[in-house]
Design goal:
Blueprint: E1 68-69, H1 81-91, E2 108-111, H2 119-125, E3 131-138, H3 146-159, E4 160-165, H4 185-197, E5 208-210, E6 217-221, H5 240-245, H6 253-256, H7 265-286, E7 292-295, H8 325-328, E8 331-336, E9 343-347, E10 350-354, H9 364-368, E11 378-381, E12 392-396
Parallel strand pairs: 1-5, 2-3, 3-4, 6-7, 7-8, 8-10
Antiparallel strand pairs: 2-11, 5-6, 9-10, 9-12
Protein name: Calcineurin-like phosphoesterase domain-containing protein
Pfam families: Metallophos
Domain Calcineurin-like phosphoesterase: 107-341
């Protein structure tokens, strides 16, 4: 999220026109084609999303051979002495039975909008602690360049067993300092390539069965963009940007986020929504008993966008086309960022988590309380129990 009405606009203070660090090297191309990234053609069918054969996990329901899950037990992924002790339990000479070692807990966390173009956030990100059995969701806006993506993904994968990512508006920026840089769909593809090089799961990859704490669930990263429909009813959509400018509000996206090869951002958004809608619907139809964890940088619902200082910024915050997706697609949790307003909401029995870190000044209060980036991670699963009536007052999370 960036608005001209705040100090953090257009120019990025810590960037100085060029990245403050050098690229980390060349990376291999993606292993599979991007049928959905070739421009304004009809969205691919569900099978093109790359669903593939999976193995069944303990505690997970039978999985048909079109859904991706983890291919090995979590105990095989970590150097844990408990695994070596397991066989000793059965071969012990003692006549009395011994207890089996406890299986490590597996939690799913999320954080968004880490904005690594800011030096304080880069320093903070390096303090991320290892969670060898846990998963992490990066909900977009890790930065503006491939180097920012590399930094975010490398650190996350070094600390977590699984990492999921969806793009925010900042990953899609083409900076003036990057002459002839990738634009629009090509810029998104560049980010996906970086993610895949680090084993990070993206919206272009199969949904994943989470069989850890709070599961089983389908982890569903999506990418929808926005179409200016979060506007008053009496404002024509073609006048939405001018309506925002009446109060000196203009998103940096209007200068740096290009829709190429689509004619407009609205056209790109429409194609993305159609594609994601088909993929979600097919997954729910095939696996009706598995609730979803939907991950999207932009909020799915307009009523969750409360920006008291810049209320007209909301036109860059989503699309009304996703308003009922949490009910339609059996979402247990919807994870988002973008607003830089940390909060937890309950709607219709679904938990909505806005878990952005934000610019350095936006989490300064937490730092002054002695908290670091680890304290700002939001637990998604298992998470709290839902309220009895399905709804609850907003829980504001100013300090995490």
């Amino acid at each position: 999220m960036t608005s001209m009405s705040s100090p953090d606009t257009i120019a990025f203070p810590s960037m100085g026109g060029t990245p403050p660090f050098k690229p980390t090297g060349q990376f291999s191309p993606v292993l599979t084609p991007f049928p959905s990234l070739e421009g304004p053609t009809s969205p691919p069918p569900f099978k093109a999303a790359g669903l593939q054969r999976a193995q069944t996990f303990r505690h997970a329901p039978p999985v048909r051979p079109t859904l991706r899950t983890r291919s090995e037990s979590i105990l095989a992924m970590i150097d844990d002495p408990l695994t070596a002790q397991a066989s000793d339990v059965f071969s012990a000479s003692s006549g009395s039975p011994r207890s089996l070692p406890a299986v490590p807990s597996r939690k799913l966390y999320a954080i968004g909008d880490i904005h690594l173009s800011f030096k304080p956030n880069r320093i903070a990100w390096e303090d991320l602690r290892p969670h060898p059995t846990d998963g992490l969701i990066l909900v977009g806006d890790v930065g503006e360049t491939r180097e920012h993506c590399e930094m975010a993904f490398a650190k996350a994968k070094s600390c977590f067993s699984e990492v999921f990512w969806c793009p925010g508006n900042h990953e899609l920026y083409t900076l003036a300092s990057h002459k002839n840089g990738a634009r629009g769909v090509a810029k998104y593809q560049e980010c996906v390539e970086a993610a895949r090089a680090h084993g990070v799961i993206t919206p272009e990859d199969p949904y994943t069965v989470w069989d850890g704490d709070g599961g089983p669930c389908l982890i569903a990263p999506i990418f929808t963009l926005y179409d200016y429909s979060f506007k008053p009813d009496d404002v024509p959509i073609e006048n939405a940007v001018e309506w925002a400018k009446e109060q000196d509000v203009l998103a940096t996206d209007e200068m740096l986020l290009h829709p190429d090869p689509y004619p407009t951002r609205q056209d790109w958004c429409a194609a993305l929504v159609e594609k994601e809608e088909k993929k979600l619907a097919a997954a729910v139809a095939e696996y009706p008993d598995l609730p979803l964890i939907i991950i999207n940088h932009w909020p799915l619902r307009q009523d969750l966008v409360k920006l008291t200082l810049v209320p007209r910024f909301r036109i860059w915050c989503g699309t009304t086309k996703t308003e009922n997706w949490h009910k339609r697609f059996n979402a247990k949790v919807v994870v988002s960022g973008h607003l830089h307003v940390r909060r937890t909401d309950w709607k219709d029995g679904t938990r909505f988590e806005e878990c952005s870190l934000g610019y350095p000044k936006q989490w300064r209060d937490a730092k002054e309380m002695g908290k670091d980036v680890n304290d700002m991670l939001r637990e998604i699963l298992p998470g709290p129990e839902p309220p009895l009536d399905g709804d609850a007052p907003t829980l504001w999370r100013r300090t995490g």
